[in-house]
Specification:
The structure holds 2 protein chains of 2 kinds. Chain A is an alpha/beta fold. Chain A is built from 11 helices and 14 strands. Chain A folds into 2 domains: about 130 residues, Response regulator (Rossmann fold, 3-Layer(aba) Sandwich), CATH 3.40.50.2300; about 180 residues, Response regulator (Rossmann fold, 3-Layer(aba) Sandwich). In chain A, about 40% of the residues lie in helices and about 20% in strands. In chain A, helix 6 links the parallel strand 6 and strand 7. Chain B is mainly alpha-helical. Chain B is built from 13 helices and 2 strands, in the order E-H-H-H-H-H-H-H-H-H-H-H-H-H-E. In chain B, strands 1-2 form a two-stranded antiparallel ribbon. In chain B, helix 3 packs antiparallel against helix 10, helix 3 crosses helix 11 and helix 3 packs across helix 12. The longest helix of chain B has 28 residues. Classes of the chains: A alpha/beta, B mainly alpha. The interface between A and B is large, with 38 and 40 residues.
Chain lengths: ~350, ~350
């Protein structure tokens, strides 16, 4: 009889599956990072989000992560290892994990997946990202004011829509306050490679840039800017400790609240596949504290932009805007729709150089 | 003072035992490293070296990871034996994936059993052609093949990213730089359901056997070995070094290209900029760990793959940082070279001479 009871209990447990945490077993949440947690940028902030989950739920969760997982053939195995070892919710935090995430998700229908910055969903795969371009409007505004050489250097990773969007929105904001401004863009073809990022920063400075923006993950450019006595912005993370004098402000990715909410949803059994694209207003994208180096009136106008984005009166892409080739894109007062923004593969008018294509 | 003294003849025992000794030394030094990181060294070594062997999915992944390493290293070993240093297998791997993958994409949606062999052929030819650049430059201008082949890796990487952001880009992919996913006829058949064990693994095995026979029994193998040991003598024996250089680089390029195509049409299933995962470079370690012998390489490839799979497990089950795992893998090559030195030289104490 006892044996039968045990058997029934085992069967019940097995049926309950990994998605149900009954309060005895901690729920397991796994993370896949593209860089090391110590990159002090992108992966670092995702790891802060992981820690936020631990803080919020204490013993009720157990979190694990795999860092520096390349976006190639190894990604699928890494994701699968987490799925197979009983994780209930898995965050894959780089664009290149999109197809591997979907492949694994198909084999583990009971496990919930969250893929950052991608566009393909499934019943158990959500996508989420930040409207970082809103932050770049603020930074571009500051950069346009602060540059004396009228040259802003931009370290770009891959020519994907997210990065192109950032360049365009920063440029439009800088140009609005400084008609003479020009952008020098270097493509490094990597998310995280401190040596390459530093080389790019040096090359940009040699070309006359005195403010550097970046869409890569390490604080290498910030340290170069500090050394050379020019300005830069924190990317993904505040990065103040790497350039106390150089850092003007920063875009901070604040994943914590989203991660906590999604974990809660899995616990409550209310998790659904969703598409989240949050910006400054919901707080997923934050603007770091302004440096004293920024004149008070510029701080005020930058703050006004932040307030405008929050109350909806300002949109980063408001017409009239032409494309680089001179063709019309947005008419006077028209705002870009999300579909166009998500697939953006062109520069706006005024940016020099050709978009790698 | 401690000095290195050349042994009259290399120690036969040490030569054979080198990989094993290096492995043991790596475990010990790695254990110390993990202990310093506050992890239980015995448990860490167990998780890295033994646990994956007792889990069926991990075993299958070891094969998936080892196949390209073995395929590339076998080709490289033939050149290395002849003293021809192809360091750019990573580039040939990329070009092979690109040319073979392009064929698959050109016939997108077309069914047929002929498609995969055609893609494999295109991949091998692409890798071979890429390796012909250093070969021709070496033959014609005596350019150093190490430098040329290495530099071409960067060219290949950029070429891949240009192609997937341009002509080969997925038309429905929101302009993200990656190709379509290959359709079924252009995807390697899976040998074991539920795993990623693909046809390419069988091909790699076949190549190992073929390479072993060629090196041990065929005239080409004899020429390779002779040229590596005594190039001048080889010339007297009728080895035409131009042809040998082209052959060695060509074979290693073709195999690297084939490995690239298998990776693209197998585990990854599309062309992505992140396709090259360092196989071309890791294969160099595998070639030496396997003593430049195809059978040894097979074993070495499996061991190397084991450390990768085990390393990942150690990362998430023991929270050992990824960098520590890389250091651990690096130790393997370091100790291999160190023991190698000791098999040709011996350490001797020499009294300080009076000035």
């Amino acid at each position: 009889m006892k044996f039968v009871k045990t058997l029934a209990a085992v069967a019940a447990l097995a049926l309950a599956g990994p998605a149900l945490s009954d309060g005895h077993e901690p729920m397991k949440v796994g993370f896949i990072y593209v860089g090391p947690v110590g990159d002090f940028g992108w992966s670092y902030e995702h790891d802060q989000g992981r820690k936020a989950i631990e803080e919020a739920f204490g013993d009720k969760v157990e979190t694990t992560y795999l860092e520096s997982v390349p976006e190639g053939p190894d990604a699928e195995r890494a994701i699968r290892q987490l799925a197979q070892s009983g994780h209930d919710l898995i965050f894959t935090t780089s664009f290149g994990y999109m197809n591997p995430t979907l492949k694994v998700a198909e084999q583990f229908p009971d496990v919930k997946f969250e893929h950052a910055t991608g566009f393909k969903r499934a019943d158990n795969v959500s996508v989420y990202s930040g409207r970082f371009y809103e932050g770049r409007t603020v930074l571009g505004h500051i950069a346009g004011h602060m540059t004396e050489t009228n040259t802003i250097g931009y370290i770009a990773s891959f020519p994907i829509p997210e990065v192109v969007r950032g360049i365009n929105s920063a440029y439009l904001a800088a140009k609005a306050v400084n008609p003479d401004v020009s952008f020098k863009i270097v493509w490094v073809n990597t998310w995280f490679d401190p040596a390459k990022e530093a080389d790019a920063a040096n090359a940009l400075i040699e070309q006359g840039a005195d403010v550097i923006m970046q869409h890569t993950d390490s604080p290498a450019a910030m340290t170069i800017a500090e050394e050379k006595g020019i300005y830069a912005f924190g990317q993904a993370s505040d990065m103040k400790q790497f350039g106390p004098n150089a850092r003007l402000s920063s875009i901070i990715d604040n994943w914590g609240p989203y991660y906590v909410a999604r974990t809660q949803a899995v616990m409550d059994g209310t998790w659904e596949s969703t598409d989240t694209w949050d910006g400054i207003k919901p707080g997923l994208t934050e603007i770091g504290e302004f440096s004293d180096k920024i004149p008070a009136e510029v701080q005020a106008s930058a703050q006004a932009i932040i307030d405008g984005i929050v109350d909806g009166s300002i949109h980063s892409f408001t017409g009239p805007i032409k494309k680089q080739d001179g063709s019309d894109w947005l008419a006077e007062g028209e705002r870009a729709d999300d579909g166009t923004l998500l697939g953006m593969n062109f520069y706006v008018e005024g940016i020099e150089g050709e978009l790698p294509n | 003072m401690l000095i290195l003294e050349r042994r009259p003849a290399p120690s036969r025992f040490l030569q054979l035992a080198t990989p094993v000794l290096a492995l043991i030394a790596t475990m010990i030094a790695g254990g110390i490293l993990f202990a310093f990181l506050g992890k239980n060294p015995v448990e860490a070594i167990r998780v890295i070296f033994f646990d994956p062997l007792f889990d069926s999915y991990s075993r299958s992944e070891i094969l998936v990871k080892a196949a390209p390493l073995v395929l590339i290293a076998t080709g490289l070993a033939m050149g290395f034996r002849a003293g021809i240093w192809n360091i750019g297998a990573e580039g040939q791997f990329i070009i092979g994936a690109l040319t073979g993958g392009a064929v698959g994409l050109a016939f997108y949606g077309t069914d047929g059993v002929w498609l995969l062999p055609l893609m494999a052929l295109a991949g091998a030819l692409g890798g071979c052609a890429w390796a012909m650049i250093p070969a021709i430059l070496k033959i014609r201008f005596n350019a150093n093949e190490i430098l040329v082949s290495l530099m071409l890796v960067y060219v290949a990487t950029l070429l891949l990213s240009a192609m997937v952001s341009g002509p080969l880009r997925d038309p429905d992919g929101f302009n993200f730089p990656e190709s379509r996913q290959f359709h079924d006829s252009a995807t390697l058949p899976i040998l074991m359901a539920g795993t990623r064990v693909h046809m390419g693994i069988l091909v790699a095995l076949g190549v190992v056997v073929a390479a072993y026979v060629i090196l041990a029994r065929h005239l080409l193998g004899f020429q390779i070995r002779l040229y590596g040991q005594a190039p001048r003598a080889a010339r007297f024996a009728g080895v035409r070094d131009h042809i040998l250089i082209a052959t060695c680089l060509g074979i290693s390029g073709a195999l690297a290209g084939l490995a690239g195509l298998f990776e693209a049409a197998g585990p990854v299933g599309q062309l992505v900029p992140a396709l090259p995962a360092g196989y071309g470079f890791t294969a160099i370690i595998v070639a030496f760990l396997g003593r430049l012998n195809p059978l040894g390489i097979l074993l070495a490839g499996l061991v190397m793959a084991l450390t990768y799979i085990g390393g990942e497990t150690a990362q998430f089950s023991l929270q050992i940082p990824a960098a520590a795992i890389s250091v651990f893998q690096g130790m393997l090559l370091f100790f291999l070279l160190a023991v190698d030195v000791l098999s040709t030289y011996r350490l001797r104490w020499q009294g300080r001479r009076a000035a």
